[in-house]
Amino acid sequence: MEGIIKFPSREGEPPRLLGNRCGSCGKVFFPGRAICPDCFTDDTLAEFELSPRGKIYAYTVIHYPPPSGFEVPYAYGYVDLSEDSIRVFTMFARDSLEKLQIGMDVELVIDKMRTDKDGAEIIGYKFKPVQQS
After folding, report:
1. Which of 17, 15, 41 has the alpha carbon at shortest distance from 30?
2. Interatomic CA distance for residues 29 and 48, integer angstroms
3. Which CA distances in Å does 50 have to 3, 14, 72, 84, 110?
4. What are phi and psi of 43, to 5 degrees?
5. pTM of the entire structure?
6. Other residues' Cβ atoms within 10 Å of the Cβ of residue 24
7. What pLDDT score does 108 carry?
8. Residue 84's closest CA among 133, 9, 21?
9. Is the confidence at residue 59, as pLDDT, over 70?
10. Using one digit for the tens of pLDDT, what is the confidence trace for 78-102?
């Protein structure tokens, strides 16, 4: 997942998704692009750390097992990172499926996505509800 996730370097620091921002028009993208699809420049794109928090825009829970090793049920959908004015496609943490609601505050986590054919865990990014204190 090189170029997509910035793993924490210090304890307590959240992981971050890595996108890029166009220096010409200011548009933010995830995942990163080689050329800005808005203004078509390619020399002003810079790596950009996205906010680790957002709100659920839409989601669905899947109960039918796919052939690719995902455990059911699982959920995926879109999260709005309003701080960055971007909508991210994502999976949601399995332990939060019954709590999910549109408009809910969520935060980025690194979690198991699936198990491959050799039994190795494949990890990636997901979102889960923000813990209320």
Report:
1. 17
2. 9
3. 12, 11, 29, 7, 15
4. -105, 0
5. 0.87
6. 15
7. 95
8. 21
9. yes
10. 999 988 889 999 999 998 899 999 9
Distance CA 9, CA 17 (A): 14
CA 2 – CA 25 distance, rounded (Å): 26
Which of the four pLDDT bands, split at 50, 70 and 90, describes residue 1?
Answer: low
Dihedral sign, Cα of residue 116, residue 121, residue 122, residue 124:
positive
Tokens of 29: 């993208």
Give me 103's structure tokens: 């408009």
Residue 66 is predicted with a pLDDT of 81
CA distance 33 to 27: 11
pLDDT for residue 58 is more than 60: yes
